[in-house]
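Narrative summary of target 7.
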Amino acid sequence: VVLFGLPKRITGFVGTQRENNAHGLEDSCTVLLHYDVMLATVKAAVVSPEVNQLRYWVRGTEGSYKKFHLDCQEDHLKAGKKPGDKGFGVEPKERHGTLTVANGTSISEEVYPTLEPVTYQTFYTKVAKALAGQGEIPVEPKGPAAVIRLIELAKRSSKEGRTIDV
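Modeled conformation, tokenized:
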């Protein structure tokens, strides 16, 4: 939604991959977001035994960007680092993404550093200030509301076995 806006249509495949799922809650999905000139695919799965988990893969006509691993802030907290400590939230080079670019007849690939992080501490400080009337909320509510609507439509699409207009 942030990158491409709302799609025109949505097709959802939502289900469970776990055998021992007593509550029957969905734990995986493939969602197709249909735009005028492109198709975006969103996938999530709880069952995915990989050493390096693929997190983002953006593909276009002139290149792609691939990123593995989760945000490192949780790992830093588990290791005893605190927000504000030097290096907190900064990813090591081996966790940077790879940018691949097509240049005419050749294709180049380079490690692309992660942007300097805005940590969760910064986010929640802004939330606290907004609640106290001392600043703007850090996320415009329309974005999350649109995502919730898309999740609901994806679940409906999966249940009904059809593509739904957004």
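Strands lie at 9-15, 28-34, 39-45, 54-59, 63-68, 97-103, 106-112, 164-165.
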